[in-house]
Amino acid sequence: MIIGTWHFLHFTLTINKIHQPQRFKIHTNIIMKKNITKLWFRGFSGLVVCLALLTNLTNLLAYSSAPLADVTITGTVSEKDENGKISPVPGVAVREKGTKNGVAANGNGQYSIKVKNGATLVFSAIGFLPQEIKITNQSIIDVVLETDSKSLDEVVVTGYQKIDRANFTGAAVKLKTDDIKIPGTIDVGRMLEGRAAGVSVQNVSGTFGTAPKIRIRGATSISGENKPLWVIDGVVLEDVVNISNDDLSSGNANTLLGSAVAGLNSDDIESFQILKDASATALYGARAMNGVVVITTKKGRIQAPTVSYTANMAFTLRPSYDDYNIMNSNEQMGVYAELERKGWLTYSDVSRRANTGVYGKMYDLVSTYDPNTKQFGLSNTPEVRSNFLQRYAQVNTDWFKLLFKNSLTQEHSLSITAGTDAAQYYFSTSIYDDNGWTIADNVRRYTATMRANYKLSDKLSLGFTTVGSIREQRTPGSQDRVNNAYQGRYDRDFDLNPFSYALNTSRALTAYDENGNLEYFKRDFAPFNIIKESETNFLNLGQLDLKFQVEGQYKFNKHLTYDVVGTIRQVQSTRENNTYENSNQANAYRAADNATVKQANKFLYRDPDNPEAEPVVVLPYGGIYKRNEDKLVNYYGRHQLNWNNTFKQDHSVNVLLGQEVKFANRQESNSTGYGYQFDKGGIPFTDYRIIKQGLESNFNYFSLQNTRDRFVAFFSNASYAYRGKYIFNGTARVDGSNQLGKATSARYLPTWNVSGSWNVKEEPFLKDNDLISRLSFRGTYGLTASIGKAKNSTAIFTNAVTNRPYLGEKESVIDISNLENSELTWEKQYETNVGFDLGLFNNRVSIVVDAYQRKGFDLIGLIKTSGIGGEFFKNANYADMKSQGIDIGLSATVVNYKDLTWKTSFNYGFNKNEITTLKSLPLIYDLIKPEGGAQQGYAVRGIFTIDFRGLNEKGIPTFTNELGEKSTIVDVQSQETKYLKYEGPRDPTYFGGWSNTFNYKGWSLNAFVSFQGGNKVKLDPKFDQSYTDLTASPKEFSNRWIVPGDEAITNIPSIIDRRTQASFESGEFPYTAYNLSSARVANGDFARLKNVSLGYTVPIAVVKRLGLKGLSIKASASNLLLLYSDKKLYGQDPEFFGSGGVALPISKQISFSLKASI
Amino acid sequence: MKKILIYLLTFSLFTLTGCDKYLDTVPDNRTDINTPGKISELLVHAYPTANYSAFCELMSDNTSDNYVGSAPSQIYGKPYLWEDVLQLDQDSPQLYWSACYASIAAANQALESIKLLGGGKELNPQKGEALVARAYCHFMLVNLFSKFYDAASAATDAGIPYVTEVEKVVIKKYDRKTVAFVYDMIEKDLLEGLPLLSDQSYKVAAYHFNINAANAFASRFYLYKKNYDKVIEYATKVAGSGGFAQNMRNWNSDYSMKSFTEISFVYSQITEKSNLLLCETGSFWGRYWAGQKYGLNSNLGRTLYFGANPSGGALAYSLFGSERGVYLPKYNEYFVRVTANANIGNGYNMIPLFQTEEVLFNRAEAYVYKGDAAGALGDLNTFLSLRIKSYSPALHNLTITKNNAFYSTGNSGGALLQTILDYRRREFMHEGMRWFDILRYKIPVTHNTLASDGKSSTITLAADDKRKVLQIPQEVSLSGLTQNPR
After folding, report:
1. Which residues in chain A touch residue B29, judged by CB atoms under 8 angstroms apart?
2. Which of A427, A443, A1143, B34 counts the most CB atoms within 10 A of its CB?
3. pLDDT for the residue A17
4. Intra-chain end-to-end CA distance of chain B, in Å
5. SS3 letters for A366-409?
């Protein structure tokens, strides 16, 4: 019988007459089926009012009835495991529904409760479905609880402990692989983009093996790495090489080893747990300042052997010039014509250049005399020359088409699980094959996992895991970039990056001549064709990663358990730069056509003992074979004792004590072989002088670097819960590391943390509230830390060789690289976190909100001292910073109607940081880099620019220089930075994602948008004071300054003529400064349609007919488009740094996947 | 169960005690200074790796404003105007300051390591080198960054911190004390170190304080301190039994046969015996010493090298250049690229810190003050024998009469000093040595400046100008020091 309807919420109160006529029972039942959308819109305010009303009403009604006769009920609560074995469950809460009356079952699952006859008993425990039993004159009620598979997700895995969500006091987010996996996205780090509040992922490079820039709750260190810790099955995953956050975007070959998780098969991963605050990460102590991502991999289950097969086929789409504003060949030749008028592309200019295009070719022909035909290659008349150039004006070369492919990547993964009560196995293997988005790259990765778990007795269980991966990768040959602080830019020689090449090479240049043969232009005085070069100058990367892990658990009794885990891991990776004899790079060593080239070619050898001699070629034959090896040897061991008990049914206590030890040796070596003849059976032909040249220039032809990481820790944790309502938690830990140097003063660091939570839901006034299914408040305060980059607790002496020109005068020298810093300590941070979890309508809607504040201190910052000690600049614990932010996670099942469900989840993180103390005196150049710079009072990485003041009467950009004056000269080496303009932080201040999934019968449609912003990015450096006939000009050039007066209407600088450029003073680089000025900044905000997918799960009946256990297919498209980004970017990806080398942006992909299990 | 717990506990305790040893592992490829050989290697950089030539030369009267235009950069411009260079880069006074103190730190570390290794006799050569090098660095600092030594005021003039211990905290407090104190400390270190030196202990002796170089240093030190007996004593040790001539540059019959490039290569090589002590310096002076806006003017160059000199002969120096400035081929930049393929890198100049010629001049000057004109003439004639074209003792040897006549004076002592200073100036052109003569003799300097319209005006540095004392870095306030008055 419906007795009432509130106008803002539709619900019914049903009164059931039961056995005793004088007693009635009320069910509150909210009708959501029809009115759920209305409910949504009415939001929170209505909810709160409703909550209060309901609570009062139910209480009122419950207490208004007269008391009944008491009966005592006893019984045992037990569970049934996968094998049907029944065992008692201790600690189960047994209560009388609708009252405050309740008890907990004892250690043997037995309980006894006095209730009123006719009442309903509710049995509940975490991990089990609650059960209600009505009392109808029984006195013994035994129940068997069913495990709640959904509720098992409500366990937080910290790597050290598994804690019930309800008892967890920290901030953490759990993600399931199935929910976040995007087919074609191989690196699991990238899968986190936009998935968890407070976790920002920036794809600074999309090449396989490179790491995205992942930050959990923003940066915590000014000079350190800011990388979260990856933990796999309880063991920290060590990086193969340490790459700083700023270097992730460098495009250097070592970034290919940047991702710690590149060897992980995502199909092996069960779930991710992201630990964000000090309480969640407390057990990681002094390494957890940047948060922790805990990965739990799949295990064998008790079941008959099941084979699962997953296949993904992804088509990677080639980029297109439509997305970028690059001039076509006709427009480009127009620019060249202007260059020629301005004295640039003249014979005398071009013939001396190391790099030339069509003009260079023209002049070469003009000056080449063929004795056979008795003619010059091209007659030097304006008509002939114009004709020659005409061809190139019309070619409109599509470099993207030539260098990129609509390629196919495949991923096949097979896993088998099987198990009995005593032994469970999981086996998986996978292959990932990418035949290359560009003509210069491809990847293949194989993985295999074997995992066995044994239950030797009720007390002892053991687990063994072997994980291995093999990687074979090819990328364009790549040299490391060089920081050219003098001009304020990065230089990279012999860059073959196809993406950079396509964007920076003139479309008037051709790859093939009229006859379809490769056409060469000039680079470093030698013939160059990118297609040929990609074939003859490339990098091969091979990596072998193998890990063994052993776990053991011994249960002394039901209160005390002992766990031990040990890991051995080795990673060997080799990078081979193969430069063939006929490659441009090798030929550059041989370019000595005439005296001008000989003088200008830096690769030729100048003999110091014979100063007047002409430079000579020292690589007469063969190419260059350069080999880099990175090796990691890692051991890890941990053991811990865990004790828990419940006293008087109300007080549960858990105590953990443990120790761990880590050993990691890294070795990095490289050697360069000159004169290796790849195509002559691999016989080296080395001119000794090339070695001599190297030594005289202070380059060694080989090197070996060893680093050793030793780490020990002692940890303890205690928690106390009162009736599951009030939970107190404390952790203390001492870490010891050798990384700060030998002095014992800095070696150890204690960290601690206290936290608590209040499960409001357990309070009587909410206990029976059906609207609010979960409500808890959490709070944390604690100290976390990390090791900064300074390692000089004792003085650091490094060996070197003196910089003297003659080999006979060189000496070995020991430098004091860093003086002792007896005050050196770890970087530390106090963190406060408050948050609440709210679940509504049986957790159909769940809201998690956390707010935090962090105060970093003792951070390593560079300070300039008096220099009297002998070290002008010191890295010392002299910097502080603060940050604050809020994380909001919201998920809801919006529609749940028969076959149709609509689930939505949204997360949003906001983080703002500020350097409060930093005594360094950065140069202008340190601040204006695209990666941003650090300065007191600003964000950890702030985007600073030189203030652009418009063009002058010659169309040359002017700026506010270091003296505060308007000028074309800015001394980027100056320490006077107060005239720079602060644009905003480099890292996004807000970021998140929104995912929607619609399920109808077997169909599933998902759309996922990720977004971030609040930051600034620098536009690609496109302007220069001199251009060559290779330059690709952006379309903005059409609006450039052309005649005096234009400075009033345009900010695009002119192409300057040769004479003006010659009159530039030394140190005058207005065009480089323009690239770094306020005119070349855009907002970093963007929203990306990250993924859209449509899946279909074949109905079980059909599947069975096929002889399978399950079958599903899915089609998806990822990175399809940027829904929003600043128009000033003109197609430039706001995440990606076009730094060349091995860096490629993330690509658009269309993929199809299939999942089947037998 | 208890048993197992006890096992666990003992295991834990065991690992606890083992852990300090475990954490003693060095994290990287750093070195421990634990052998005499390593102390020697540490001392390779006990010599300042920065070049004082640029700013000293630009401040001196060797340079002029040669043409309308702007200077290559502040570093090669401001010293000419006697303005403080705030930039910290190659060839800046600040870098020289820090390089000297970095070398002092290396010396102090060596001394500390010697103590740790027991300080036995076998370590004497290293100890000697560390002490002398430490003295040298402080000596250069105090001469440039404090008021030049003047016995009358040295006890009150602010010195520079004399550092004898390795710094172990981030920011340490120091005291400038007085110039007299610094000079006393230099003398103490020098005299303690000198007898311990051994030429046999060096791999490349010319880059270390070999005995000759240390004696040369002593002769300069006592010259600045005006203790002329000691100058003669130490200079004579350098001359040895064979005299100075055997260890001098030969401009009139060797260098004069060589090309520009050849001279510049040989000038700072260890094979040139004149180079008593060479030093590796990070510097771009090898690009800016010649043909720049501020540099040796062609008129002045012609006067100095082709004009009359007291000997009556023609000087054999090879002078190059144009109307925009002239120069001697002294620098051969050693350019170390940052990577094998890079276009950018760091420039190095090997510069002679002590040369035989200087010791010769030091002794000649001391002879003059001691009233030994014959002694002074003897040394000067040795010098002329290697500098005058087609040298003939009868024609070119200097006598008191000839010298007095050249200056038309009867003050033979004064005339001799003038001759010595003038030859010194020519000999050490571009090398910054002239600045120290200007400081010693309180010579005022006048520089011309050309405005953009070509108008010339002059600026003057008075004899006792405050700007003659270089400014020390602003950051010294962190260490409790005050900067020089301006």
Report:
1. 705-707, 798-799
2. A1143
3. 35
4. 80
5. HCCEECCCCEECCCCCHHHHHHHHHHHHHHCCCHHHHHECCEEE
CA distance A818 to A26: 76
Write down the pTM of the prediction. Answer: 0.83
Q: What CA dihedral angle connects B262, B267, B268 and B270, to 10 degrees?
A: 90
> For position A40, what pLDDT does the model report?
40
Amino acid identity of residue A1130, one-letter, is Y
What stretch of H or E contains A833? strand A827-840
Of B20, B86, B207, the CB nearest to A744: B20
Of B30, B41, B344, the CB nearest to A486: B344
User: Band of the pLDDT at B11, cuts 50, 70, 90?
Assistant: low
Which tens digits make up the pLDDT trace of B175-225? 999 999 999 999 999 999 999 999 999 999 999 999 999 999 999 999 999
* Rounded distance between C-alpha atoms, residue B280 and residue A301, angstroms: 70
Q: What is the largest CA-CA distance in chain A?
A: 125
Q: Which of A20-29, A135-144, A481-490 has the lowest mean pLDDT?
A: A20-29
**Nearest by Cα to A236 from A297, A284, A187:** A284
3-state secondary structure chain B: CHHHHHHHHHHHHHHHHHHHHHCCCCCCCCECCCCHHHHHHHHCCCCCCECCHHHHHHHCCCCEECCCCCCCCHHHCHHHHCCCCCCCCCCCHHHHHHHHHHHHHHHHHHHHHHHHCCCCHHHHHHHHHHHHHHHHHHHHHHHHHCCCCCCCCCCCCECCCCCCCCCCCCCCCCCCCEHHHHHHHHHHHHHHHHHHCCHHHCCCHHHCCCHHHHHHHHHHHHHHCCCHHHHHHHHHHHHCCCCHHHHCCCCCCCHHHCCHHHHHHHHCCCCCCCEEEEEEEECCHHHHCCCCCEECCHHHHHHHHHCCCCCCCCECCCCEEECCEEECCCCCCEEEECCCCCCCEEEEEEEEEEEHHHHHHHHHHHHHHCCCHHHHHHHHHHHHHCCECCCCHHHHCCCHHHHHHHHCCCCHHHHHHHHHHHHHHHHCCCCCHHHHHHHHCCCCEEEEEECCCCCEEEEEECCCCHHHCCCCCHHHHHHCCCCCCC
Q: How do residues B251-304 score in pLDDT, each as one tens digit?
A: 998 999 999 989 999 999 999 999 999 999 999 999 998 888 899 999 999 999
Nearest-angstrom CA–CA distance, A468 and A485: 42
Strand A70-80 to B275-282 pairing: unpaired
The mean pLDDT value for B44-70 works out to 93
Chain B interface disruption, residue of A459, A628, A866, most B CBs within 10 A: A866
Nearest CA distance, B222 vs chain A (angstrom): 26
Q: Classify residue A968 by its DSSP letter.
A: S
User: Minimal Cα–Cα distance from A872 to chain B, Å?
Assistant: 6
Distance from CA of B276 to the nearest CA of A (A): 14
Angle at A252 between CA A249 and CA A256, to 5 degrees: 85
Q: Among the listed ranges A119-123, B52-56, B276-280, B358-362, which one has the minimum average pLDDT value?
A: A119-123
Whether the CB-CB separation of B231 and B222 falls below 8 Å is answered with: yes
User: The dihedral of CA A355, A357, A362, A365: what is its sign?
Assistant: positive
Q: Look at residues B209, B185, B187 and name the one whose alpha carbon lies nearest to residue B196.
A: B209
Q: Is A610 in the B-facing interface, judged by CB distances under 8 Å? A: no
- Please say whether the dihedral angle defined by the alpha carbons of residues B376, B378, B383 and B384, taken in this order, is positive or negative: positive
As separate numbers, helices (DSSP H) first and strands (DSSP E) second, chain A gives: 19, 57
Q: Give the span between the Cα atoms of A157 and A273, in whole angstroms.
A: 7
How big is the A-B interface in CB pairs under 8 Å? 243
Q: Which of A747, A795, A802 sits opposite B109 (nearest CB)?
A: A795
